[in-house]
Design goal:
The protein is an alpha/beta fold and 215 residues long. It has 6 helices and 9 strands. It has a 5-stranded mixed sheet, sandwiched between helices. A two-stranded antiparallel ribbon has the order 1-3. A two-stranded parallel sheet has the order 5-6. Helix 3 links the parallel strand 5 and strand 6.
Amino acid sequence: MRPEKLHNNNKMGSNSNQPNNDSQSPPSGGNAFSGWLGRTLLRITGWKIEGSLPRYPKMVIAVAPHTSNWDFFLGLAVLFALRIKIRFLGKHTIFIPVIKQLLEFIGGMPVDRRSPHGIVDQVVDAFNQSDKMILAVAPEGTRSPIYPWKTGFLAIAHKAQVPVVLVGFDFKHKTVKFGPSLEHHNGIEDNMHTVYSFFIDINAKYPDKVKYSEQ
């Protein structure tokens, strides 16, 4: 059975004006002003949203290609526009006073790479302790060209038993594209094939900084 989706009105998403608070909807965030701000920023910069965000209460969002710091600001505009709340991972060492409050306000989650518990288990614990949670990750794991991409996001989804939703930032067409959902019970190799097949058609800001094969 496929989940309901948050469909787009005028390419901006139906939850851009009113947050969804039912138990099977994604975690909502922001307010009317931040929703207006996000939609306005996308409109004046010429960006649009294509596709829909599934109504999963918990999910991993894999956003790619990640080749520029501008990806972060575009992502903020999108989450403001859709009025959703996301979490993203950051080294625990950058969560210092003042900066910590700002990072946590926009969804930052400190992780300690030295922990014997492991990053995957740290994030899975956060999923298990939350009624709703969206984790946004860059599957490449770096802004430099690398192949193969990291698979930690799939390991997190598998262990937390949550789906992965693919989201592409297409700079050529100024389009944020919501792609397919990957089920956690599928094998990593099969899921990575779907990942590469989707993102290979997404135009990065700097195409020379992304690789989809060993070539």
